[in-house]
């Protein structure tokens, strides 16, 4: 499939994990991919991998929680590429912390990156898409935005916020030609989840929580981002698609 020929897709948190898989999928389907990440080392590696595969990609160091940096970087992308047709608003952070122990600075950082950061990027890109009268935005939520998980109050709150941010954006942007949806993955094996959980935890989690009997892979999520960003999803708007191997069932 080549659904994104002559399209430019901005992917945040594109250096590794699910973000890289999304960028790879968009690029494989013909898009030029704007790779944005706070970490330059992973960004350089991601760009090199995509270019070695013959894909079209360029990289931008960006902390999504810094609104001035978001505006400046998105302006530069538009200047260099002419248009952004697709936004995969993916960058996020996570760690465990019991509710009563959450340090205020940790609460603020989680909300700053996962909720405020997605808002800053979505708002700046939506303004540009509105001027052009077309666009597709896919926000990264989580099953943790639909049901709670102990020791993740700050993360759950940030992802629950993304679900309603997505629905509200859909209400306001649809007639401007901009479709907005979200993806709610369950347990996906990435550097993020590997940093939190040891193999024994993961095995136990699979056995007790995931009816498909395995954890998800980044490409399981990337395919859904590509679907939602494509014309195959032309009438899907304000939706949150769960990608969790049956966990919430
Ligand atoms: N892994 C899972 O099980 C899972 C499940 C549901 C949702 N998610 C969500 O998917 C997204 C990607 O997660 P992942 O597992 O691939 O994580 P990851 O840590 O493997 O990758 C996240 C990427 O985002 C970048 N990033 C972090 N803070 C940033 C910032 N302030 N500005 C720009 N880039 C930043 C990191 O450098 C990294 O490259 C996150 O929003 C996460 O909450 C993950």
Automatic annotation (TrEMBL):
Pfam families, sorted: adh_short_C2
GO molecular function, one term: oxidoreductase activity, acting on the CH-OH group of donors, NAD or NADP as acceptor
Swiss-Prot/TrEMBL keywords: Oxidoreductase
GO biological process terms held by the UniProt record: bile acid metabolic process
InterPro entries according to UniProt: NAD(P)-bd_dom_sf (IPR036291), Sc_DH/Rdtase_CS (IPR020904), SDR_fam (IPR002347)
Top-rank lineage group of the source organism: Bacteria
Similarity comment text for this entry: Belongs to the short-chain dehydrogenases/reductases (SDR) family.
Name used for this protein in its record: SDR family oxidoreductase
Organism: Cohnella rhizosphaerae
